[in-house]
Design goal:
Layout lengths: L9 H56 L6 H8 L8 E6 L8 E6 L3
């Protein structure tokens, strides 16, 4: 046995354990925060994608039929627009047959 080597004390072991635990909790915290940020970004892009799809279909309808669709149900029936009503609320306001309708998509909290 080497008489110059010291046996690790209990406080040294406890300090290393607490340091490891602190690093682990910090890593989990930052991972959770980044996951929330990615989720928010994904939701925003889904909302914008749905809004653009509705607008494109309305413009297509105008080009083919000469008037913007009167309702979202017309877009659903004739142009294949569909979404999850439990996840999004879509506000489609038409002001005239030859004026671009206002489209707003609002995500619902799940």
């Amino acid at each position: 046995m080497n008489r110059f080597s010291r046996k690790p004390s209990a406080s040294h072991f406890l300090r290393r354990l607490l340091t490891s635990a602190a690093v682990l909790f910090a890593a989990l915290f930052f991972l959770t925060k980044s996951s929330d940020s990615i989720s928010a970004t994904t939701t925003e892009s889904q909302v914008e994608s749905l809004r653009q799809a509705i607008v494109r279909s309305a413009v297509h309808c105008y080009a083919v039929e000469g008037a913007y669709p009167e309702s979202l149900s017309y877009l659903k029936d004739h142009y294949g627009i569909d979404w999850n009503p439990e996840a999004y609320v879509v506000d489609y306001e038409i002001t005239g047959a030859n004026l671009m309708p206002s489209v707003m998509v609002i995500p619902l909290d799940r």
